[in-house]
Amino acid sequence: MSLPLLRRRRTNLNNLFEQFWPYTIDGLSLGAIYALMALGYTMVYGVLRLINFAHSEIFMIGTFAVLGTLHLFGMPSNVSGFALIGLLIVLAVAGAVASGGSAVILEYVAYRPLRRHGASRLAALISAIGASLFLQQLFARVVIPAAFHLPKEKGALPIQGHFVQKSDAVHIGSFELSNDRLIVIVGAVLMMVLLDVFVERTKLGRGIRATAQDPETAVLMGVNIDRIVTATFAIGGAMAGVAAALYMLRFEETRYDVGFLLGIKAFTAAVLGGIGNLRGALVGGFLLGLFEMYGSAIFGSEWQNVVAFSVLVLVLMFRPTGILGESLQQARA
Amino acid sequence: MNNSSTDPLTRVRGAYSSASDSVRDRWSDAPGWARWLVYLILIVVALVLPADGIGNVMSPYTDWPTLLFFPIGGYILLAIGLNVVVGQAGLLDLGYVAFFAIGGYTMAVFGVKFGWSFWEILFAGVILSALSGIILGAPTLRLRGDYLAIVTLGFGEIVRITANNTDYIGGPNGIGGIPHPPTLTEWMIPENGFFDSLGLGGVSPFKYGALDGKPYYYLMLVLIVLAIIFVKRLENSRVGRAWASIREDEDAAELMGVPTFKFKLAAFAIGAAIGGATGVMYGSQAVSIIPTNFPFILSATILAAVVLGGSGNLPGVILGAFLVAWIPERIRGLAEYRILVFGGVLVLLMAFRPEGLLPSRRRKAELAEGTGGMGTMGAEIGGPVTVTAGEVKE
Predict the structure, then answer these.
(1) Which residues does chain A have within 8 Å of residue B79's beta carbon, measured at their own beta carbons?
(2) ipTM higher than 0.90?
């Protein structure tokens, strides 16, 4: 009984070495999406010390905004070249506006009242879980059936949205890079650089960093905390919206709970890189994507998520502040 | 926003708060015999609770005794266990369902494959889940706060996915044909006017069959009462004081000579054991279990029950678990919208009363001080701090 098991293991390890580049590219493009989502977690955590559990639903709303925009364009299929880049920018903007907007509303409804009363973070976490459930069910039962003219019981089914003509952008020997994966990776890095410049160079970015470091002193120095919190949610949400556009490009389908596992992984990526650290989110996202794909190459794809969480546990055991450390705020006690 | 005292939301909150405070103060001033009287009344109420008359009001859509066993009874027991970890020791555990799953699978594997009886398995399940709590806790309990939360969340997912991927325990199809607990006695509640009027005449409370949910409910009730006594005794012991000190300030506790790691591990193991016992109970009634019985959302729901009721206060936690289990079943008439409503209610209740429905006095004091075990949110905009350590102004 153990012999076939051993044999399967071995071929699987060979599998990784034979198909090293495809797994690496897949890992990086998956990691790019984790990284963009991780930004939302890491920024909100940096400022509020709150796991924004409903961030996964913010992402989900983004994917549906992207789908809706595609419908506005009459569901084009097989777009390629510059038209694809143009369309993708429109989709990313649509996703960013929808996600950013709903993140701001979420903060206003679910977190601001708690913040006013100085509630414990645990209460805020429960509120976040409640908001997450509410938004998921709202889409599954009301929004999706109404928007796509489906019977009510089919709101939980995945919705397809194919629009890209996939082709190989780069092809050297065994190294193949398809255009969608390339766009996802480049797009994520680009957004990351933009955000980094924004946080480091602008006045609002300085306010965010100040609030993350020491809210009380920031208030005394004239920082309007409410504005900073709103901005943090808007930016984090917008990043999730861009991630949603890239996700739709790459995976071409979405459903009401698409964000759940993705959200947990993205939070894992944020912790992996060092929570509160924007560059850490990028590193954590890419590393997690790579670990997952290599892990699923070796152990089989059904163990992909177990690999991801095991990596997290190991990293936290040996370097609890994450790979790059916590930097948007002071290290926590 | 709602800071003016004339605004209705603030007034409602104030009224509720003073009402629940006066109940709590009266309780703490009550003499011993009065407390025992209340305990007695509560037990009698719990015993007649499965009666049909109550069921028709409480649960018109599903079988009330079965509902009382699970989710209501099960959630209460799970919440009591999670309260040890979250409410007493202040450790945020988002993967509590893992221990419930380990208990359930212990029942299934030992019952189906080895033919053990329920009572042996209950013992084994408690030991095994406590062990798994220690195995999870030993490497991770050096982490704090949210890191611990995310690691436990990961552990919960690992347990579920492993169950899903392991052929020996049935993979995604789970295990079927789990035996019921052996019948203790065929004794029947006499069918006379008094018991018939309660709807309990002719019930065999110690005969665990496939149809009647009442015997399982009574078994669950016994476990709940045992768990309450056990946890309450712990709370007032050296262990409970150590947990409170860890929850309030771990560094200070360590400096004062409290072996924090050992006590955190103990909290994890005890919470896990109670979760495992619930799992064994659940498996013994459910006949078959599959990995999707143990989703993350169950961990979140139990945590919601603990926080909703008032983390750290047993009556509050039990009330919270009852509401969280019962409300979605009661509004089954809303069919597909019930989880939607549940999510909305959670958000509203946290905005209305973030310290929970029945917080303990000590926890309330901690929250007012802004320590509250888990701390407050970072960018909180409070007024000037008027509270000195150790006393609370309301």
Answers:
(1) none
(2) no
What is the nearest CA distance from B379 to chain A, expressed in angstroms? 5
**Most A CBs within 10 Å, among B141, B380, B393, B394, to test the A interface:** B380
Residues of B with Cβ-Cβ distance to A291 under 8 angstroms: none
Phi-psi region of B335 (alpha: psi -120 to 50; beta: other; left: phi over 0): left
Write out residues 203-222 of A within 8 Å (CB-CB) of B: 211-212, 215, 219
DSSP B188-210: ----SHHHHHHT-TT--TT---S
Query: What are A206's two structure tokens?
Result: 């300085």
Whether chain B has a CB inside 8 Å of the CB on A277: the answer is no
Name the residue with tokens 């990961």: B154
Quick: pLDDT tens for B41-88: 888 888 888 877 777 777 777 788 888 888 899 999 999 999 999 989
Token pair, residue A222, equals 């004239």
Within 8 A by CB and 6+ apart from A311, the residues are A272, A288, A291, A295
A10-152+173-318, CATH topology level: ABC transporter involved in vitamin B12 uptake, BtuC (1.10.3470)
* Beta carbons of A275 and B378 less than 8 Å apart: no
Among all residues of chain B, which has the CA nearest to that of A130? B343
* Integer Cα distance of B369 and B362 in angstroms: 11
Backbone angles phi, psi at B197, to 5 degrees: -65, -25
Residue given tokens 């055991």 in the structure block: A317
Domain ranges of chain A: 10-152+173-318
Its pTM stands at 0.82
Distance from the Cα of B78 to chain A's closest Cα (Å) equals 17
Is B233 buried (19+), middle (13-18) or exposed (0-12) by CB count in 10 A?
exposed
CB contact under 8 A, B351 and A219: no
Q: Which CATH class is domain B59-369?
A: mainly alpha
Q: Which of A43, A47, A133 to mutate to test the interface with B (most CBs of B within 10 A)?
A: A133
Q: What SS3 state is found at A160?
A: strand
For the CA atoms of B85, B91, B97, B101, what is the dihedral angle to 10 degrees? -70
Chain A residues with CB-CB distance to B381 below 8 A: 115-116, 219, 225-226
pLDDT tens digit sequence for B213-254: 888 899 999 999 999 999 999 988 999 999 999 888 888 898
> For residue B376, which residues of chain A lie inside 8 Å, CB to CB?
118-121
CB A305 within 8 A of CB A261: yes
* Chain B residues whose beta carbon lies within 8 Å of the beta carbon of residue A316: 140, 143, 147, 151
Strand blocks (E) in chain A? 159-160, 168-172, 175-178, 253-254
**Are B351 and A114 an interchain contact pair (Cβ–Cβ within 8 Å)?**
yes
Residue of chain B whose alpha carbon sits nearest to that of A135: B340
Q: Tell me which chain A residues have a C-beta less than 8 angstroms from the C-beta of B248.
A: none
For residue B189, the distance in angstroms to the closest alpha carbon of chain A comes to: 43
Q: Which of B157, B350, B382 sits opposite A118 (nearest CB)?
A: B382
Per-residue pLDDT of chain A (333 residues; tens, 9 = 90+): 344 444 444 456 777 777 788 889 999 999 999 999 999 999 998 888 888 889 999 999 999 999 999 888 887 877 777 888 889 899 999 999 999 999 999 999 888 888 877 777 777 888 888 899 899 989 988 888 888 888 877 777 888 887 777 777 777 766 777 888 888 999 999 999 999 999 989 999 999 988 888 888 888 988 898 899 999 999 999 999 999 999 999 888 898 888 888 988 898 898 888 888 888 899 999 999 999 999 888 888 888 888 888 887 787 777 777 777 765 544 333
Q: A111, B376 in Cβ contact below 8 A?
A: no
